[in-house]
Amino acid sequence: MTDEKQVLLNCENVVKRYGSLAAVDGMSLSVAAGEIVGIGGPNGAGKTTFFDVITGITPLTEGSIAFDGHDITGLGADRICQLGMARTFQLNAAFESLTVRENIDVATYFGRAKRTFPGLRLGPEAREQTEEALAFVGLAAKADQTVGQLPVLDRKLLMIAGAIATRPKILFLDEPVGGLNTTEIDLIMELVLKLKGEGMTVVLIEHVMRFLLALSSRVLIMHHGKKIFEGLPNQVAEDPVVVATYLGEGTQKRLKTFFAEGEQA
Ligand SMILES: Nc1ncnc2c1ncn2[C@@H]1O[C@H](COP(=O)(O)OP(=O)(O)OP(=O)(O)O)[C@@H](O)[C@H]1O
């Protein structure tokens, strides 16, 4: 569990209602600096909505969120980003007709408290943020390509680049490997480990359990807007409620083998 002194993010009893539907229904989560926390759960469990509420994309209905010494409950996404929180999206969101570099420039600009209006002008420090992010994810050689031409892997890398260009203290990744093949999944895994190596705190949502469980130091499983499990990665497949509502027996068996082989290695 997290040490009180190191807590970077603290969500308490967060509720998000859409009409009569409680998409997030009393979620609490503490994340310590340097942790990788994984969130899983069936489709429609409320995982993305929980990210949306934390990152200020949509206002919460009830509860409170503290981040890095600030009460961020009710703040907008730009202000929250400027305080050091960045995210990627499940869909490959990008400005299709802009180049890779221009897309990251937009993110860099969004993350800066001091913006130069009018127009999207970046000073030398902001330029450096964009170039660093490009290099970090390995997209520097494609910086001048139009995003519309990029394959799925590069689009995923682009979103991560945009997020880290804002120099966040915490990074939220929403299904960073959805739609990728095994080699590509491994590449993103390496990238997340590289970020962790640099001290980044990460919260990630993923259905690819191998990815989720290998990277996370702690895992939460959501169902109907609620947390139904919180524990170590190797405990997930042991939990009867998680197996019944999410994993199924086939995945449970595969995951048990995965951890047994890991222990032998
Ligand atoms: N803007 C919205 N308006 C109304 N209902 C919404 C809205 N956004 C999400 N929901 C509903 O909230 C519930 C949770 O959706 P959410 O996308 O957060 O789930 P999820 O766990 O991320 O699912 P997935 O794994 O499929 O991405 C769903 O029933 C969804 O239809």
Compose a concise summary of this entry.
By secondary structure, the protein is α/β, with parallel strands linked by helices. It is built from 8 helices and 10 strands.
Structure report:
This protein is of the alpha/beta class and 265 residues long. The chain has 2 domains: 4-84 and 168-264, Rossmann fold (3-Layer(aba) Sandwich); 94-167, no CATH class. Helices cover 38% and strands 23% of the residues. The chain has helices at 47-54, 77-82, 100-110, 124-137, 152-165, 182-197, 209-215, 240-264; strands spanning 7-18, 21-32, 36-40, 62-67, 70-71, 85-87, 170-174, 201-205, 218-223, 226-231. The chain has a 6-stranded mixed beta sheet with strand order 6-7-8-3-9-10, with helices on both faces. The structure holds adenosine-5'-triphosphate (ATP). Adenosine-5'-triphosphate is lined by residues 18, 21, 23, 41, 43-49, 90.
